[in-house]
Amino acid sequence: MGIRIWGRPSSARTQKVLLALAELGLPFEFTLASATMGEGGHVAKGNKAFGVVDTADYLAMNPNGTVPTLKDGEYVLWESNAILQYLAMTYGPAGFYGSDIGRFASAARWIMWENNELIPPMHNLVKHTIRLPETERDPAVARQSRAQLEKAWGVVEAELGRNRYIADDAWSYGDIPMTIRVHRWALLEGAEKLTPNLARYYRQVSERPSFEAIRDPAMHLAG
Ligand SMILES: N[C@@H](CCC(=O)N[C@@H](CS)C(=O)NCC(=O)O)C(=O)O
């Protein structure tokens, strides 16, 4: 049976799962699914969505109708950060958190922080610079999102002055969301604008072989 993933390549939360599976080197079956994006781009621009998320079978697995969803054998899980923790504990305690509960909790702290502090403004920035039709974009929302992100990245910059990676000196699953966010931020704003520790961190994480799973700029800048 193996692992099945439903998602869309342009979804940063789906990318978290793709990056985790690449780190683990696990094979999986991927099904394109989304209510808002399709082959051509966003539905707001008249494109057809991948669909699937509105079918009874999908909603029985994930009643939110969002992506990603994971199925491992008969076990079903949605909520991308919970999927990361499931994969970490099931397939990679040593590599994903050094089999150490303290490092596991520190990594958990950062994936929750990413969810609260980085996702909302970055979602708005992408929407109001790329995804919405030009006439519906609000430059004030983009400006405010950029300012919120700069403040949040300041917290990461300081942490990376203390640790080589986000939760510790060793890489952990906490670095998965952070890798995706720093890559997307660099693609949106320019890597030359990254603060020193963040720039060093971006070089480190983008040299990992797993980064190939999310490197393609089209995955991040799809509109
Ligand atoms: N908290 C959920 C949020 C899920 C979510 O909102 N996913 C977005 C993609 S990043 C989505 O499904 N968007 C609508 C769609 O593509 O149909 C998670 O982290 O898995």
Could you explain how this protein is built, in words?
By secondary structure, the protein is an alpha+beta fold. The protein contains 9 helices and 6 strands. The protein has helices spanning 12-24, 56-61, 80-91, 93-97, 101-131, 139-162, 175-189, 196-206, 217-221; strands at 3-7, 28-32, 37-38, 41-42, 69-72, 75-78. The strands form 2 sheets. Strands 2-1-5-6 form a 4-stranded mixed β-sheet, covered by helices on one side. It has a two-stranded antiparallel ribbon with strand order 3-4. A hairpin with a 2-residue loop joins β3 (37-38) and β4. It starts with a strand and ends with a helix. Bound molecules: glutathione. Glutathione is lined by residues 8, 11-13, 34-37, 53, 66-67, 79-81. InterPro entries: Glutathione-S-Trfase_C-like, Glutathione-S-Trfase_C_sf, Glutathione_S-Trfase, Glutathione_S-Trfase_N, GST_C, Thioredoxin-like_sf.
